[in-house]
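User: My instructor asked us to take a sequence, write out its structure as tokens, and then describe one feature of it. I'm not sure where to start. Here is the sequence I was given:
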Amino acid sequence: MKPNLILINTARGKLVDTKAVLEALKEHRISGYGADVYENEENTFYHKFDSIDAIRDPLLISLIQQPGVLLTPHLGFLTMEAMQQVARTVINELTYYESLNNGSGDQLMV
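Assistant: Let's start with the prediction itself. The structure tokens for your sequence are:
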């Protein structure tokens, strides 16, 4: 790899070995890392912390303290199309359960 390489991971956190990324950053084998996923994100992402000291993941702390690292929330699901599909699904489920309660069959409204 060229040393000016920037690694981007927007797929799955476990596809990237974070320890190896840290080592490559520290040794200047890569110049940056960007991701909206993290291999141990279930205990950290989507939680509010008052400070970096409140994070209990030393690997994550080391990563975010590196220059050239950008971590963002995973918001791929937050598109208009995705939110419309979520709304349709909720309406379908509610309509189905309402029809069962009223004895009007099991047809779904789309």
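For the description part of your assignment, you could build on this observation: The two ends are 50 Å apart (CA to CA). Try explaining in your own words what that tells you about the chain.
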